[in-house]
Each structure stands twice: as structure tokens, then as C-alpha cells.
Amino acid sequence: MRGKVDPVLALPWPTGRPSSWPAGSRPSTLAIERATQLRLTAEIVAEAPEARLIRLMQMRHLVSQMAEYAGRERAAMPGFSRPTSH
Hints:
Helix content is about 70%, strand content about 0%. By secondary structure, the chain is mainly α.
């Protein structure tokens, strides 16, 4: 299967888009997605509540940082759209 898919993925976008993938790639993609979902579910079920709370607090901190950087970038973007007077 991989020998058929890899050459298609190496093609430029118009040629290498999903409609030209081998027929077996869709079922294998679904299998990978289901295995990932199963792994994540197993991790969540097996995780202690305290560990989950710590992870959520870390995630909240990282999301806050992302929002701060996004705000800085948004504030800087209007400067790029101003016409130059040269």
C-alpha cells in the first residue's frame, strides 16, 4: 500500500490530490483515525483526576499564551496595509 501512496503524495497538488489516491488509502486513513481516537480514549479513562486537572491547567496556560501572541500579531498587522509615501 505504501509503495502506491508515497509516489502520489510526492506529486504537486493538482495531480496528487486525494481523488488520485489508490482505493485502499481511505480505509487505512479511517483505521488510523479510529486507532488514534481509541488511544486517546484509553488515556483519558486511565488517567487519575488529579493528573487530568493539572493537564487542563497547563492547557489553559498555553491557550492564554496563544491568545496573547495572536493579539500582538493582530495589532501589528494594520501597519502592513498602510500605503507607503516613497
